[in-house]
Each structure stands twice: as structure tokens, then as C-alpha cells.
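Two proteins were folded this term; both appear here.
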Amino acid sequence: MPKFEDSLKQLETIVNQLEKGDLPLEDSIKLFEEGIHLSSVCKEELDAAEGKVQVLLKQRDGSMKVEPFPPAK
């Protein structure tokens, strides 16, 4: 499985190619499908990373407590 950064870079390249608008329809559709796949891969990677992120909170007594990072609202 490619790294997140590699997938994101490839997705950016696809977006740039599609934005130019000079590709035949069939090629555009293939790139679009590949972009959707890469977008899904990136989202899965981000979701997994978000689950690993934790926040270190200082308690009133001065001790430290680890809690899961709050999800985005």
C-alpha cells in the first residue's frame, strides 16, 4: 500500500490534469475513478491516524492523564 503522502501527491496530479480540461472523455473518466480511489485510501489513512492521536491533559492535582483526541464536529 502506498504511503499517504504518495497517494496525496498522486491525487493532486490527477486533479491538476482534470482541471486543465484537455483530456479525452474516456481518459478523464479513468483519472476520475483513480482519483476517487486515492481519495478513499487517503481518508482511511487519516481516520486511522486520528484514532491514534491522543491528548495529554494536566489534572488539577498536577498529574498528567492521556485521553483520546476529540473527534471533529
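Next, the second protein.
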Amino acid sequence: MTRLIFLLILTVSLPLSSAYAAAPSKTVVLDVPGMTCKFCPITIRKALKKVPGVISAKAEYKSKTATVTFDPSKTNVDALTKATTNAGYPSTLKKSK
């Protein structure tokens, strides 16, 4: 009886666990030359995190860049640059990892 319950649980949980497999992500670095103070990265990071599919976003005042990791099946670089532009900080793709 215990074996039967275990097999049922295992059979039911296998398809569910594969649904939670990590989707491939992509990381890009954006040039954001319009950063003029140490508070600019906060606005840029918040704007990027609102884009559906963004996993993480980090903006750095010193280098005037933003590093964004995202799910490419949900968003793209154009959407990321549009988000920073709409927040008042136009950006361009610097590097794709």
C-alpha cells in the first residue's frame, strides 16, 4: 500500500516538476549616458523591473550602465531600452552576454 501511494505521488509530481524547469535567460548591458546623479540608477532599475520577463536589473552610476537578466521568450532589448527611455534615460545595447 505504501509503495502504491509513493508511485502515485511520484507519477503525479513528475510532470509538475518539469514545468518548473528554469527557462533560459539572457543578460545584456545597456549604456545609459543620461545618468547625472547617484539616484538615477534607482529610477532606471525600477523601470526595468516593471518589464514583464525581467529577472534582475542593476544600474550603476559610475559606469553609466544597466545590467539586465531577462527571459527572452517574454521580452527583448527593444522593450528594455524603451522602458529606460520612458523613465527619462535613453539607453542603447552595449554588450550581450
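The domain at 22-96 is CATH 3.30.70.100 (Alpha-Beta Plaits). The first strand starts at residue 26 and ends at 31. These notes refer to the second protein only.
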